[in-house]
Amino acid sequence: MNNNSTPSVEDRVRASLKKRYAREKRFQYYGIGAILISLLFLCVLFGDIISKGYTAFQQTYVKLDIYFDPALITPEGQMDQNTLIHGDYSGIIKQSLRDAFPNVSGRQDKRKLYSIVSNGASHTLRKKVLAHPELIGKKQSVWVLADDEIDMLIKGHISRDIPEEDRRLKDNQIQWVDQLMADGRIEKRFNTTFFTSGDSRDPEMAGILGAAAGSFYTLLVTLALSFPIGIAAAIYLEEFAPQNRFTDFIEVNINNLAAVPSIVFGLLGLAIFINFLGLPRSAPLVGGLVLTLMTLPTIIIASRAALKSVPYSIREAALGVGASKMQVVTHHVLPLAMPGMLTGTIIGMAQALGETAPLLVIGMVAFVVDIPGGITDPSTALPVQVFLWADSPERAFVERTSAAIMVLLGFLALMNITGVLLRKRFERRW
Amino acid sequence: MQLTTLLFVLLLLSSLAYYFGRKRAVSVSGGEVKDLHSRPGYYGFYTVLWCLLPSLLVFSSWLAMEGQIVTQLVVQDLPEQIRTLPDSQLSLVINDIKNTANGSIVSGKVNSDIEAAVSHYKSLYNTSRAALAVLVLLVAIIGLSISLKKISPSQRARNAVENILKYLLIACSTIAIFTTIGIVLSVLFEAIRFFQMIPPIDFLFGLNWSPQTAIRADQVGSSGSFGAIPLFTGTMLISFIALLVAVPIGLMAAIYLSEYANSKVRAVVKPLLEVLAGIPTVVYGFFAALTVAPLFREFGTSWGLEISSESALVTGLVMGVMIIPFVSSLSDDVINAVPQAMRDGSYGLGATQSETIRRVIIPAALPGIVGGVLLAASRAIGETMIVVMAAGLAANLTANPLEAVTTVTVQIVTLLVGDQEFDSAKTLAAFALGLMLFVTTLFLNVIALHVVRKYREQYE
Questions:
Q1: B145 and B250 assigned to the same domain
Q2: What's the alpha-carbon Rg for chain B, to the nearest Å?
Q3: Residue of A261, A384, A405 lying closest to B441 (CB–CB)
Q4: What is the pLDDT, as a whole number, of residue B108?
Q5: Distance from CA of A390 to the nearest CA of B (A)
Q6: Which pTM value belongs to this model?
Q7: How far is A365 from chain B (nearest CA, A)?
Q8: Could you tell me if B376 and B247 are in contact, meaning their C-beta atoms sit under 8 angstroms apart?
Q9: What are the tens digits of pLDDT across the range A122-136?
Q10: Are residues A111 and A243 in the same domain?
Q11: Which chain A residue's Cα is nearest to B183?
Q12: Residue A124 contacts residue A132 (beta carbons within 8 Å)
């Protein structure tokens, strides 16, 4: 067609097409790459936590032949509760360990021998004796908790190849453990302690129940306050508020609060709830109040969206048959918007459950052994427990931290799935 | 009486109030319910509100004042030599008294003066609680009987109830304002007290941060220095790295999801990205400190690089991943808001899809994207747990991402966790930092929200 020396526009376009299509493909690959990187990270994160933490659901126990020596438990022969509680149970355990390894001598070696068994073992024996006082004077095989170092060795987290001086577990201890293993005296069992006890300095005795209870009470306070307040605020702003500067000001405030760093809410809680109002430190009550203020914007925004989705014809129909404005809202709009509001609240609660920083500031980081029984008892929360354990130097706390994270993520997943299902089940498209 | 029991009794009383109010309304109408202005239930609610609101008001104001008044009374009756102690020591004594009264372990030994004060405190406390119970129930019953008296067929009970309800709704919606005021006041007051001790210039422009004030005056480094520049640079360094990770990845993910992906892929990938946002930050912190940091250090050593185990690089990287979903969902919104006509116009001129995205959609969506990035930046600056667990504690004025730096939020947490006295510069410094943090994030948020809103209006 065109035989000029300069190529025509069409030819130039044709010539560049290959390049342009290649660029198009590259651009798409960038997008896919970005998504894959994010998902890869997600997988690595979950994989890492699970691979580190799944071993924490099992715990090593040692079988000891215990002689319930009356001389150590009831030196004066009384059988009352008080004497039984104060018996020398660790002495009994030491005795049985000495009996099991008669050729261990020397103070240092003996101490190493005793450290095979957890400090909590004497507790187990005490409970046993209190429940069955007739055991005194008898011999029985008892499974007791092994020390966390032994536990780590059995689970393969401590390598035997490291030179002895770099290990906390010494060669002779490993030898004893191997001997116990050969005798079938070491066993891994499901770790019930992890789910039934509070925090402890000894990893083998530490559990998450205390933290879970703290989280539960904190969320209870948060829910009890933020759900009614959030819904009330949303109803006012969406249904009643006139368009004026005051309403605008409220809206600007809500939008800004949604983006204020959570730690600033902690400072508010410390200055106002604790120092000014004198509420107790470390208590779920204050934690709940702070988290309420923090989750309110989320709940208000979600509830307003739910109210907005109710079609106007419903309001008009109700007004038409003579309902007052308040009746329209409480009898018709609110029930229809409720599923959406509940979903928003559940998502807000999930956020509150994972929140850590403000709780640190209001003192919910204390070392709390007892399981809190109310909203004013000192307590921690699940994510705070994760933080505390992550800081602990013992190797055994790493797996416990990961396990606590799994429990936390489990709760979060449960809440979010409930929210999504709720929405799916009750959502109405108009 | 226990407070919960009291509240329970109050609840019981109010349900009785509903019953009585309703019954009374029916009886004054003489069985002709249609003669009543409102339906009988409204008279019930009317009585409930009269019974509940005043008594709850009394209840909460009593509890708010109780602590201070009881403490005052106890202090007045303390012996002369204790009462005239300096404030800080006096508050310790008062704490001891309170702890002993509550049955917890106290620090000091308990002498007879303290014991007397404890029993005094206990008796005052019990009296106060008893008086509270009597007063609250009295108020509730008076309210109940007054409202019952007022019920008559012509009374506009519905209007009254609806009015009160509306005021309750308004009160609930103003909590957002009070929260903001509360935040401003709480950080501002303590920050002002801090600035009375340390001049603001030293704080804002000082290059040295070591908040440890000494116990004895003659100790080395007793003054403590509060120059916050290293904290600001540390925060900015980590946030910058985080944005460097989050913005390209988040933006590309959003572009792919909204322009290329079919609905099936979107339905799977979008929720998965949201999962990243739903993971508690403490989990990211743990992951960064225990997995990523050692990995990077080893990697660095094998290349002959010295990477600190608390390096800004690792912290920023993990934080960046955390805010990817944030960036991507905000960008997704703004990209979807670009009118289809603009795309069609570009395709009509023969542009490929990627050319359309790069030359038309992104420039059109740029203000919205910038707004989203600003919001993400404010998120990164205010993020606490990741940096507390993975970043350093020592203030280090450097721009090298391989070294450990500390941030504003890390310092707030370290200054406030553990034992604290409330009037030391060290504790107050945390509030001054909080003020800086609040102001910065507020500034970023306001600008971002403004930009995003402006942008939305443009295409509506």
A1: no
A2: 31
A3: A261
A4: 54
A5: 7
A6: 0.88
A7: 8
A8: yes
A9: 888 888 888 888 888
A10: no
A11: A268
A12: no
